[in-house]
């Protein structure tokens, strides 16, 4: 079982930036793809970004492409989400996720974090 702990959420003005972090632990954490999903009030969970276990490949949703960057420090088993040019519609609870190669692109994860709130003020 992989344990995921997110940090870095908060309140930011529209147009601002935030960086989320997700620390993974567990026997198989280094072999998993890792990524981010988000859930806005009254909506379903939405895919945001994924990075492969090696960090060599990333995929983004169209809604964040060009504004968000996912990266991974394999030595620390930590994944980051740099968010820039934040918009009111980015407001959501952001969840870190981990899963076998390809799983997150199928919107399925083996493990989920507890979520961190991102609030955008206009």
Show unreliable segments: none
Q: Helix and strand succession?
A: EEEEEEEEEEE
User: Compute the gyration radius: what is it?
Assistant: 13 Å
> How many distinct beta strands?
11
Query: Strand fraction band?
Result: over 45%
Averaged pLDDT? 94
- What is the count of DSSP helices, taking H or I runs of 4+ residues? 0
Q: Into which percent range does the helicity of residues fall?
A: under 10%
First-last Cα distance:
40 Å
Strand count, sense and closure of the main sheet? 7 strands, mixed
Structural class: mainly beta
Overall 3D shape:
globular
Describe this structure as you would to a colleague.
The strands form 2 sheets. Strands 2, 4, 5, 6, 9, 10 and 11 form a 7-stranded mixed β-sheet that branches. This protein has a 4-stranded antiparallel β-sheet with strand order 1-3-8-7, with no helix packed on it. A hairpin with a 4-residue loop joins strand 7 and strand 8. It is mostly beta strands and about 120 residues long. The chain is built from no helices and 11 strands. Helices cover about 0% and strands about 50% of the residues.
Task: Sum up the structure in keywords.
4-stranded antiparallel β-sheet; 11 strands; globular; 7-stranded mixed β-sheet; mainly beta; 122 residues
Topology diagram in text:
Layout (H helix, E strand, L loop, with lengths): L2 E5 L2 E4 L4 E8 L7 E7 L5 E7 L6 E3 L7 E6 L4 E6 L8 E8 L11 E2 L3 E6 L1
Parallel strand pairs: 2-11
Antiparallel strand pairs: 1-3, 3-8, 4-5, 4-9, 5-6, 7-8, 9-10, 9-11
């Amino acid at each position: 079982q992989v344990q995921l702990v997110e940090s870095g959420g908060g309140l930011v003005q529209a147009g601002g930036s935030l960086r989320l972090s997700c620390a993974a632990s567990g026997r198989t954490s280094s072999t998993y793809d890792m990524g981010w999903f988000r859930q806005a009030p009254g909506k379903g969970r939405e895919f945001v970004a994924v990075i492969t276990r090696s960090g060599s490949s990333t995929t983004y949703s169209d809604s964040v492409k060009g504004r968000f960057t996912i990266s991974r420090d394999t030595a620390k088993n930590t994944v980051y989400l740099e968010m820039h040019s934040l918009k009111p519609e980015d407001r959501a609870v952001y969840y870190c996720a981990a899963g076998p190669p390809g799983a997150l692109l199928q919107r399925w994860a083996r493990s989920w974090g507890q979520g961190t709130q991102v609030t955008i003020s206009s």
